[in-house]
Design a protein that fits this description.
By secondary structure, this protein is mainly beta. About 0% of the residues lie in helices and about 20% in strands. Bound molecules: zinc ion (ZN).
């Protein structure tokens, strides 16, 4: 049996090309999947993992 890695299992590493107009196309560095982003802001260039912001410990 050979396990085939599903696309979902791929941790897509989007390499965004220079934005042409409104859309930006990025290709996954790992699986080579091409994805189009409507806006550069939608591009997951940053890990926007929202963690619970801990309140600053004020002494
Ligand atoms: Zn991928």
């Amino acid at each position: 049996m050979s396990e085939t890695v599903a696309e979902e299992a791929c941790h897509h590493h989007w390499m965004l090309s220079s934005p042409a107009g409104d859309s930006t196309s990025g290709v996954c560095k790992n699986c080579g999947q091409i994805r189009k982003f409507n806006d550069a802001y939608q591009a997951p260039s940053r890990n926007t993992s929202r963690t619970a912001a801990k309140p600053k410990a004020t002494t």
